[in-house]
Every structure is written in structure tokens, then in C-alpha cells.
């Protein structure tokens, strides 16, 4: 499949150094001779998220059970992404050694077989992006999907999602698009989330046009709130 998708290196994507600490993930970006540490997209999303629904779910099933589900889901997601990353890099996959790895591999191949016929061109995978002075992050793929320049992210889920449940995913897509547009001079206004469910379904969600612009405005509001909360006041 990788040989069937043209890889076009149209832009110079620089790898950013990542730091994980108590305050979340930050990326080091050199701008105008200054070494800046920008908060990651996921850190901003977590800090500005309404946690009431998740907290209620965790309280209902128990904190220990909720943490076990979270850890296992993260392991499955890591393995799922590894399948796709290795495909683009044309490297062999290590042999799965446990149930969670095997599940992630199957879900990754399921996404590839279901959706990658619509991926006409890849500009980069695991692309580091930053918005000067505001945030940075790494998106799964930038390229041409269904004939349009797009930011594409892959997600795993315990069960099927609905469009109205995944506003954070859409905010994430618009964050990467805004960063790509301002640094690389593009006009990407199309975001795609491809979801593999542990129950066997695959799903495609996308935003474009006015919905995309509305989500981007909401994302920038979250960025402003994050920085307002995390900027020391001057007395």
C-alpha cells in the first residue's frame, strides 16, 4: 500500500525536541535566535477540557478500573500508530508479544485497508508543527485526502464515536492546520479523523468550510485561556 501512495516532500518539516514534565508536554522551538518552550496541543486540550463526564464515568466504574482501561487503550493506540508509521517508513514491524499489541496491529491494518485508498498523496507523517509563540505538536499525516489538502489523525476507540462527541479531535485538527498554514504558507481547511474501534468498526469523520473555521476559533480561544492561566502575573 505504501508504494501506491505518492510521497511528496513539499515542505521542510523540522523535528522538534520534546520535553515531558509535571506541567505537561512542551516542544523546544528556535525562533529568531530564542529558544522557546511551547506547550503541546494535547497539553492545552487537557488543561481546558470539561472533565465532568469523564470524572462521572470513572466514579461509576471505579478509579482503578478506569485507569486500567486508560492504560490499555494507550497501549493499543501506540501499537496501532506503529503499524501506520512503519508502513510509511517502509520498515518491518516487530513481532507482537501480547494481546494489546496484536489488537493494535489489527486496528492499524484495518484503517489502512479501509481508508488509505482515499489518500492520494502524503507530504509527511509524524509531522512536527508549531504556531509561533503559542503551541506545538505532532500530527499523524499531512497530505491529499479525497482530493483536498488535509490534516489527518488516527484514533483508537473502545466503541464507535459520534460526530458531536469528538469536538476535541476537531480542535486538534484545526490546531495543526493553523500551524501548518502560518509556517508553511498553505491554506488547509480540511481535517479528517480516522477511527478504529476495538469492537471491529472503522469510522471516518471530517470537518471543512464553516464548521472548520468555527472549530479553529474555539481552539484559539482555548489557547488564549491556557496562556492566561499559565502566564505569571506581573505585580
Layout: helices, strands, pairs:
Elements: E1 17-21, E2 24-31, E3 34-39, H1 41-47, H2 52-61, H3 63-89, H4 99-115, E4 119-131, E5 135-145, E6 148-157, H5 167-184, E7 190-197, E8 202-208, H6 209-230
Helix pairs in contact: 2-3, 3-4, 5-6
Proportion of residues in extended strands:
25-35%
Instruction: Specify the overall morphology.
Output: globular
Strand arrangement in the largest pleated sheet: 4-5-6-7-8
Kindly provide the radius of gyration, computed on alpha-carbon positions and rounded to a whole number of angstroms: 18 Å
Taken in chain order, the helices and strands follow as EEEHHHHEEEHEEH
Would you tell me the overall average pLDDT?
Answer: 90
Number of helices: 6
Distance between the termini: 59 Å
By helix and strand content, what is the structural category?
alpha+beta
Number of strands: 8
> What level of helicity do the residues show?
40-55%
Largest sheet: 5 strands, mixed
The unreliable regions are none
From the structure above, extract its key features.
235 residues, alpha+beta, five-stranded mixed sheet, three-stranded antiparallel sheet, 6 helices
